Amino acid sequence: MTEPIFLQKPKYFPALDGVRGFAILLVVLLHNFSFVDYFQFGWLGVDLFFVLSGFLITESLLVTVGKPRFLRHFYIRRILRILPLYILLLICCLFILPQIKSFVFDMAYYTEHQIWFWTFLQNWLFIFYQPGSNEILIHTWSLAIEEQFYLIWPLLILLIRKPKALLATIMIVLFLIWSARILVWILQVENFSIASFYSFTRIDGLCIGSMIAILLKNSPSWITKNLWIILLSFAISNFAFYFISAAYGFSLPYFAFIGYPTLTMLFALLVYEAIIERYRIIKLIFTNKIMKFFGRISYGLYMFHWPMYVIGVPFFLKLFKTSFLLENKLALIASSLTITIMSIVVSAFSLRYFERIFLRLKKHFI
User: Fold this and answer.
1) Which of 361, 295, 305, 294 has the alpha carbon at shortest distance from 78?
2) Rounded to an integer, what distance in angstroms lies between the CA atom of residue 186 and that of residue 334?
3) Residue 134: DSSP 8-state
4) Radius of gyration for the chain, computed over Cα atoms and rounded to the nearest angstrom
5) Are 39 and 29 in contact (CB under 8 A)?
6) CB contact at 8 A, 291 and 22
7) Contact 57, 214 (CB under 8 A)
8) Quick one: three-class SS letters along 255-279?
9) What confidence tens digit (pLDDT) does each residue in 194-218 have?
């Protein structure tokens, strides 16, 4: 008889700290060093975060679903992890910074629509009303998507419980969001930000990460046995898309149609290999101290790096040009490096002296 999923013990996967560190480094390289062509695909770090989050949260939910106060404890743990730092960021950006006389950024968009940010609904706001040139809080769209997903997903796990039914449910969700992206592209609604909507429907990673957790609980060897079939199916899908797109003059959006699920599946396989530690090279890369350090500070670094860059880059560009007489490209590199180092220091300080105050409380809600 198969052991009920909630009686199995949760596990700690050391390499996933390093994978999280790799994800945040991709995002930081994209945002802070966008002038380097090689870093343009750093946005993939968000999808890797989604896969990790989907796996880890679902793995935790499957372990605790049969315990008393299951939902209450889950939501309290999420609140303790996410809200304190997020609230601190909003207070700084919406209330403190605008009071500083030397602060030159117009925060009217954010203050007028702040209810969307306090309620984690800003991704919907961005679909219909873009923030314009001031994108100081634009990066929080991914956090909003995660919180919305985890408002519903634990309820489904509690109601369904059976692994096969959960797997079927998450596959249906994947199909629906894929269909939604195609439908939105076909309709081409006026004054509708298709790019933002694609961002909202980009929960492929959360779904596929959740699928990995379910499969590992119910049938641990299934992925290994069917790995080549999985890879072959996605390769065939991409080839098929190429010929279909050619018939339409290559006008079909690759990532919306097939790119997001393909890339997140590859990330899911990376997470899977990091978990089972079959290849030594993966273990060496993702369990080294540097990658694990970035993994530990990843949440703070994600929250702080972009606002600090938006605010700091004009100041440091002027400083390096006028005081150090650097040409524009060198001044930009120096500014980006300075802000990145500052962001790392602030994030490490935040983890040690702020976030851990709340993280220690999580042990009371297991």
Assistant:
1) 361
2) 44
3) -
4) 21
5) yes
6) yes
7) no
8) HHHHHHHHHHHHHHHHHHHHHHCCC
9) 666 677 788 999 999 999 999 998 8
